[in-house]
Amino acid sequence: MDDSPIHAVASPSPPSSPTLFAMNPRRPAVGDRVVWLGVFLLGLLPAASAGVGVMIAARDLGGARDVVWVAAAVGAVATLGALLAVTRVQLRRRRSRLPRPPAVVDAEAFTVTAGTAATPVRLPFAELTILQRTAAPPGLCVGTPGRAVVVVADADFVDDGVTIAIERAVRAGVLSSSGGSARLAELDREAALASTIGRRASAATHGLLGLLAACFAVELFVGALDDGAWLLELGGNAPALVRRGEWWRLVTAGFLHVNLTHALMNATALLSFGVTLERTIGAHRFLLVAVLAGVGGNVASAFAGTHVFSVGASSSVWGLMGALIAVQWQARARLPDVLVVPARRWLMILGLNVGISLLPGIDLLAHLGGFVVGAVVALLLARDLDVTAPQAPPRLLVANVVAVAVVLGCFGHVAVRANARGPAERRLDLARAGLAVDGDSAVTNTAA
Questions:
Q1: Mean pLDDT of 36-62
Q2: How is the chain split into domains, by residue range?
């Protein structure tokens, strides 16, 4: 949402006759993009096949091999660029064939066909709970959660400055409805609060991402991506070893990953949920949720799961999802409507992630454990939450210091232990954990 100061506009009298605002053709729907992606891929496959053929032929060319490789790379890039250009032209042509009816502001409602929608949405002034300027893209967000929320950008309209004119007309319509003065003041208050929350820093989220990146760099340095023994040595969650007293694995496993895709997926999800949660409840509450959810998921995996080895930050990611749901439920009356995710969308997000968690090699119990712990911790921490200024009480600061000290202490222990041990000890750990001696048996708990 808008990270800039609230744009206040005058509220003239609502129009006695409908006011029309001409709109640009609507953007292609997802289905259209999928069709042209298929066209793009069909063109790319022959080019890729030709490139592979050139590379195979280059094996017998001796000193000319580098020239052939460069030529193949240039040809592949040129082909890719040409395919992208053709796809863009076709999408633009498709867009020109999808006209949109004009947006309409009358005495009772705002009606608009937004985004890729095929039918107009009517938003009665008497029901609006969201009226806020947006920064990216510049425009206006209008709606009522549970019914319809639309974002219209300046670029959606033929003329310049239309969203400002629409905002004036909508404000006038709200003001003329029953209890309009109080409702307009409430809309402005919520818009100001949403803007304030959107401007808050998310240092803790980015700090966790930095720690994940540092751990992945260590994995690359020691070769843990190709050697399960090293991944176990760095602190992977092996239930058999946890039961032998190596409890620190419950902390460190949440910062390790088995490959780049696994790390990027979890980092992306952490960024998506983490920024929103941190800006809502504050950095100190967020950090406790993330750390405790990660540990809770690993505990569930170690003592109730069936996998012999697991790593990944997805326990924390699921904890952030659970925390967001819990906070939005508990503090619903204190949050701006524009920041509340509808229940239907949460069901879609959870359904998708549960489906992924049921795939082979995914640690479902770690996900569910993280989700439950994250939700419970958030409920406890958000009881006295002031969303306008989520200050941390002294006990919360102490808890954060302890949590950070435990995490750093666990990794310090891992570093000292790994430096003092050799291949024989690492192979022994593999056997104790129930893993193959070559270290190939590893399960990941990936959050999408």
A1: 57
A2: 19-26+100-199, 30-96, 203-444
Provide the pLDDT for residue 150.
85
Q: Are 370 and 297 a contacting pair, CB within 8 Å? A: yes
Region 403-431: mean pLDDT is 89
Residue 240 burial (C-beta neighbours within 10 Å; 0-12, 13-18, 19+): middle
Give the model's pLDDT for residue 436: 60
DSSP letters for 111-148: EE--TT-SS-EEEEGGG--EEEEEETTEEEEEEETTTE
Give the model's pLDDT for residue 304: 87
* CATH architecture of the domain with residue range 19-26+100-199: Roll (2.30)
Domain spanning 203-444, CATH architecture: Up-down Bundle (1.20)
b/e code 364-380 from CB counts within 10 Å (16+ = b): bbbbbbbbbbbbbbbee
| Residue 53 phi, psi (nearest 5) | -60, -40
Q: At 213, is the pLDDT very low, low, confident or very high (cuts 50, 70, 90)? A: very high
